[in-house]
Amino acid sequence: MPFDMTLVQRGARLRRSPFFAATQRYGAKAYTVYNHMLFPICFADPEEEYWHLVNGVTLWDVSVERQVEITGPDALAFTNMLTPRDLTRCAVGQGKYVVITADDGGIINDPVLLRLGENHFWLALADSDVLLWARGVALNAGLRVTIGEPDVSPLQLQGPKAKEVVRALFGDAALELHYYRFLETALDGIPLVVTRTGWSGEVGYEVYLRDGSRGDELWERIMEAGKVHGIRPTGPSDIRRIEAGILNWGADMTLENNVYEVGLDYLVDEGKGSDYIGRAALERIKTEGVARKLAGIEIAGERIEFNSTRWPVKADDTLVGEVTSAIYSPRLKKNIGYAMLPIEYTRLGTALGVDIPDAGTRRATIVAKPFVDPNKDIPKT
Amino acid sequence: MPFDMTLVQRGARLRRSPFFAATQRYGAKAYTVYNHMLFPICFADPEEEYWHLVNGVTLWDVSVERQVEITGPDALAFTNMLTPRDLTRCAVGQGKYVVITADDGGIINDPVLLRLGENHFWLALADSDVLLWARGVALNAGLRVTIGEPDVSPLQLQGPKAKEVVRALFGDAALELHYYRFLETALDGIPLVVTRTGWSGEVGYEVYLRDGSRGDELWERIMEAGKVHGIRPTGPSDIRRIEAGILNWGADMTLENNVYEVGLDYLVDEGKGSDYIGRAALERIKTEGVARKLAGIEIAGERIEFNSTRWPVKADDTLVGEVTSAIYSPRLKKNIGYAMLPIEYTRLGTALGVDIPDAGTRRATIVAKPFVDPNKDIPKT
Fold this sequence. Notes:
2 copies of one chain form a homodimer.
Chain A: H1 20-25, E1 30-34, E2 37-42, H2 46-55, E3 58-61, E4 67-71, H3 75-81, E5 95-97, E6 100-101, E7 107-109, E8 112-117, E9 120-124, H4 130-139, E10 146-148, E11 153-158, H5 162-170, H6 172-175, E12 182-187, E13 190-195, E14 204-209, H7 215-226, E15 232-233, H8 238-243, H9 259-262, H10 279-288, E16 292-299, E17 311-315, E18 318-329, E19 334-342, E20 351-356, E21 360-367
Parallel strand pairs in A: 3-15
Antiparallel strand pairs in A: 1-2, 3-11, 4-9, 4-10, 5-8, 6-7, 8-9, 11-14, 12-13, 13-14, 16-19, 16-21, 17-18, 17-20, 18-19, 20-21
Helix pairs in contact in A: 5-7
């Protein structure tokens, strides 16, 4: 029986992905909402999906990663103003994991940026209206840019067998892509961008559909090519991304945080030759040092369920911070996650308590992240 | 059994309202997501909730109407720049239904604005990140403003018996409020703003909680006061709001539309003495006239279910537009709604066809809106 959409929507306010019908047909069991769109988050048990991702190949509908497209003669100068990354060092055909920063250094979003041309950029967004931010900034910026949302909808192909599926679909050129490189291609005339990116910590690719009318066709084409490799549609795996130390905007970082608090220091190109929004604030924060940090945490005791609220963290019965994400890793056989804490509690080995709703206080320890050695595939450039 | 939240959320990304525990306790049956927050949309059958709204009094958790707060010495000048309404004509203690416009005249949001002081404004938002828009605009505006999201969470008290509940809670001062007027008050020390506003077409009030830690207490206090009047928690009623001709941002209007297309012309104060974002575009659009308009539509045949996608509208088998909202009114015993159509198809009485998914084509007719005489209570200033 298809999922009862009235459980998550009322009227036609929320948008559907070009793959929506396919996700229904393949039995999506839950949808959340992300960038004003319905987002299929699981097709089976999350742990079953995790093992399939780790050992096989999975297909995720991440059309909710809406794109902001920036074009026009000053697109490079403008886009370069939005992020601490130095985009003059991003080649055409290359992507970057970036943060979009507010004037106070707060993190507005953490998209994957693709440079499609000298003055042609896409930002594949986390869940905030960067379209409105960018258009607001552009108003008085005195730069000649056009900012809009193109008809572009990504899928993720993730897992060790993703390579074989990509080879079957796009040949060796796609297979040879380096991290954060992409190519513009087509499949049966369906216009696509294929990137070597992902949100899984496994080998992975994203396939950006450039014609929303052909979503169903692309989905079936990929499922067909992946059949021999046991491909399955799943939701994104929070178990796997937490193992890999990957953050989820809105949960692990928000507008209230800056890169130094959440360990994304490497997204600031210190020597950047031009100004950007938030530069003064970030330079000040770096000099002064941060008062809190997102730390890795291991929670003792039996298997926990994925947190759906922030859990209070205590030191000697005093509330000191919050767990932002925590989940059981079946591979590590441990409860792992992140906590935002005053810096003095983030030293490795620090013993703390975590209050789990309706389940009492658990002992917890500060540990290093990532939790799984990332050397085989790091999901960041 | 409480609603299984894993059907709509994954992790702690989505925020919860101060009334979340109460909505769970009172048996919310579905939640959507709005402004990055969980939004309870029904507690019983929507038709049952409709009759209760029309004949009694209902309590809705609309904390998802997040506020953008604008303060600082230039707050009036800045806020006045965001909307075609002339805010110099909005007194302290008064509210206005406004549109926030983009430079091309597109509708970014349609909040209720409250003026709490000479230079102190709240915008109670529909589902888009006006916080980011306003902060982006402010960057180079050269005005001294502070823009943030305060700890403010509205509830709606709607229905003919709302007056009695408000009298019991806040006395005659609240009862005597004119449309779009408000008062700052407290209940057992809980700081509140009470406004004479709503999204129902019925007599109604909103109670803005100013201390999120006291949500449960406020909820129970209101339920207790409403007990004798048969108060019930419900979701917002789309049946009633469509009867009243009220629009839902994201469904009936988006960034792609302007006020002239959706019949919100009265939200432009033509004689406004200062410039605002989108003015030139709106003046041009008004002079040139619009090519499409949102029209009232009546759909023939048996009772329809509330549309969850936009339905194609045809004239002689040619696709000409889309139904944005359509629902069965049990009071009118008709299927009513809105359709965005080329202006030549919006004349009253025009005969069209509507394609309903899995239910074939129905005859439809252009009719006047609102569908129910609004004289008893118009939900707009």
